[in-house]
Amino acid sequence: MTDGNLRIVSLIPSGTEILALLGLTDAVVGRSHECDYPPEIQDRPICTQPRLNTQASSSKIHDEVSNLLQNALSIYEIKTDVLEKLQPTHIVTQDQCEVCAVSVSDVEKAVASLTHTAPEIISLKPNLLNEVWADIERVANVFQVDSVKVLENLEARVKIVTQKTQGLSQTEKLPTVACIEWIDPLMAAANWIPELVTLAGGKPLFSITGQPSPQLTWENLITGNPDIIVFMPCGFDLNRTRQEAELLTKNPEWQKLRANQTGRVYITDGNSYFNRPGPRLVESLEMLAEILHPEIFQYGYKGETWELL
Fold it and tell me: What's the pTM?
C-alpha cells in the first residue's frame, strides 16, 4: 500500500507520536481528543470524546471513572459518524488501560458498524520500555517503514543516562523515590515508571515495574518516607499538577515527610511525558535523571517540563 492510499486514525496519543516519529504524520487523517503532539496533528478531525468532566477535581474524576466502569460503560465514546467519513485503512489504539484511552473492544464495535471500510486495528499494550520499542518496530513493520535509526537514537539516549548512573550505587546511597500518578485517591505510578526511576539512579518505592499502578495510603507514604517525591498525575499538565499537589500539601501529615523537609518535591507534565508510552519516555527518563541527580545531569528541562513544588 503506497503512502497516498494510507489513511490512519490514531486513537491514542502515544500511537500518534510513534506514527510521527516514523515519518507517517501526513498519513494520519483522524485522531483522539487527547492527541496533541506533534503540534501539526492538531488540525486532524477528532474521533473520540470523554464521557466525563476532565476539568473536575481528582476525586470527582475518580468517582465518575469508577461509576462508568461499574456500569460496564467506556469512559470515552468513538464518533462513528466521523470514522465513517474518514474511511481509515488502519486504526491505532491501545489495550493497556481502560482509563487512558478508548479500549480495543470499543474500536472493534465501532469498526463493525462501518459500511464502507474494514480498517486494520493495531493495538498497543506496552508495560515496559522494551515493549514500547517493540511497539515502534511493530508499527513500522505494518506500514513498511524503517525503524532502525529512530530506535538506535532512542536507545543511545537511554544508554547515556545509564552509563552515568551505573557507578552511583557503589559510591553513594541511591535516593528513594515516590512517583505519584493520582492525588485523590493517592496512587503510585507503575508500569514503566519504576524502570525509569531505576535507570535514572533512584530506588522506586510503592510500585513494581510492569505492574498496574497501586493505590497508596497516607500511612504507607509516611512510613516509606521517600527522599524524593515526583508528581506526574495522569492527564494533567504542569499547572494542573501544581494545583492538585498543593491540595495534598495542606494535609497536616505532609510536614512529616522527609522530601518536603529537604525541599525535594517536584511536579512534572505527566500528561505529555511520563503517562505516554511512546518515544517521549526518553525525555521523561532524562527529566528524572535531572531531578534525582542535578550534580550529574543538566538537560535544560527544568522550568519547562518540571519544577520544584
Answer: 0.90
